[in-house]
Amino acid sequence: MTTPDAFLSDHEWRLKMAAEGKAIYIPGKTPKQIAAERMREQDRLARKSSRTIALTVEEWRTIDTAIPDVIELLDDVRSVLSGLAYMDDLDRPAVNSMMRLAARAIESTEDKEVRVLDRLDLSIRHEASREAEERRQAELAGERN
């Protein structure tokens, strides 16, 4: 004689035993679920796009140092402003000197680092919009066919 439990899958039988308080069962992922997750992750990684950006050799050399230099400059400015925030008397000559030095530091990056980072930003945005337009045109062409 066949019992109703004989037709249960392993998973269903374990769930039934856990529901009856006869076992503890924490279901995991099936091999199919794991494979599907891996495929989704591979698809996500494949969708990452690379972009070709045309800059001069000098601009690429400048970018190599511009990014860390600007990060350091912003950290220095943050430190100066943090120090000024807790000063009692902002009319003291030392405060004015710190403000002038911070302003000069920022101005000194405008001709080289800021200019090349701006050029890089524009190139990245231009390439991204070109790619988006190409995708849009491909989708439109696909809808027409």
Give a brief rundown of this model.
This protein is mainly α and 145 residues long.
Layout of strands and helices, then pairs:
Layout: H1 10-19, H2 31-46, H3 57-85, H4 93-144
Helix pairs in contact: 3-4
Can you give keywords for this protein?
145 residues; mainly alpha
Report on the structure:
It is a single chain. The protein has 145 residues and is mostly helical. It has helices at residues 10-19, 31-46, 57-85, 93-144. The protein folds into 2 domains: 8-46, no CATH class; 57-144.
Tell me the span between the first and last alpha carbons. 61 Å
What overall form do the CA principal axes indicate? Answer: elongated
Summarize the main sheet.
none
H and E order: HHHH
- Mean of residue pLDDT? 81
Overall tally of domains = 2
Q: What is the radius of gyration?
A: 31 Å
**Total DSSP E strands:** 0
Q: Approximately how much beta-strand content do the residues carry?
A: under 5%
- What is the helix content? over 70%
Content-based structural category: mainly alpha
Q: Which runs of at least 5 residues are low in confidence (pLDDT < 50)? A: none
- What's the helix count? 4
